Amino acid sequence: MSRGAVLVDAAGLLAEPGRVVLLDVRWALGDDRGRERYLDGHLPGAVFVDLDTELADPPSPAAGRHPMPSLQRLQSAARRWGIRTGDRVVAYDDSGGLAAARAWWLLRWAGLTDVRLLDGGLAAWRAAGGPVETGDVVPAPGDVTLTSGGMPTLTADEAAALPASGGVLLDARAAERYRGEVEPVDPRAGHVPGARSAPTAASIGPDGTFLPAAVLSERFAALGAVPGAQVGVYCGSGVTAAHEVAALAAAGVEAALWPGSWSQWSADPGRPVAVGPDPGR
Q: Exposed e or buried b for every residue in 173-212, given b needs 16+ CB within 10 A?
């Protein structure tokens, strides 16, 4: 997958002809004001997407804090967003794509191929002179039919087995959570033995846009994530890991996402935990 298949910049979106479905996915852990911010100002025609209820099934210790939604739930949501068969879709947020990437990944997994992230999100749109509007948008219902399997996934056991089998397992959480120094939300602190620390926030620059492909390639290559390698990614609950999958794709590396991530692993007392800066075994 090329960078252009993952990202669109604000100037490119402003100039894009024809119909594009815009999804506003403003969300952050512990912050429920995404919809409020959306109503205060969003890209013209953008529909608000609720990550907790539309991009995830209810949480459970067995499946994690943000289990993948059922295909039926996701299809109903996509139709509410107005997506029709053959539509182009662009998702954005105001946090460097860290939330919007969840919508990007899920719709790609569900068989849609023309789904991109607005590089730099709302700030980049404003900086490029893009207009914003306030209030809610309720589009005509779409008719899209979703499938599954468009993006690779991993189970907990498959993710844990990657390092020993010659693959690479990347932990996309903040480095201090990886090291086990803090754990703000999940049952235990630390990381999956063998996983390598690769905070997804390091894939974006100060302006919230993705780093150049060459820089991303160099970063991931240093971790063993190169084209052709078996690469898996996890985070706390499968949200920001989708951003890392997008960054890897922009660098030409295919990666599988482990949806249950650390929230699933740490809830099982029988699973081993490593702490400190090294992967551990």
A: bbeebbbbeebeebeebbbbbbbbbbbbebbbeeebbbbe
Phi and psi at 49, nearest 5°, equal: -115, 125
Cβ contact 181:203 at 8 Å: no
| Contacting residues for 222 by C-beta, under 8 A, at least 6 apart | none
Residue in 105, 64, 242 with CA at minimum distance from that of residue 170: 242
Q: Which of 235, 242, 255, 256 is catalytic?
A: 235
Angle, nearest 10°, between helix axes 213-221 and 240-250? 110
Residue 196: closest CA among 228, 226, 231: 231
pTM comes to 0.96
The parts of the chain modelled with pLDDT lower than 70 are 281
pLDDT value of position 31: 78
224 is catalytic: no
Amino acid letter at 21?
Answer: V
Best CATH choice for the domain 156-265 from the list 3.40.50.2000, 3.90.190.20, 3.40.50.1820, 3.40.250.10: 3.40.250.10
- pLDDT at residue number 146: 98
| Residue showing tokens 């954005």 | 92
3-state secondary structure of 170: strand
Distance CA 119, CA 270 (A): 40
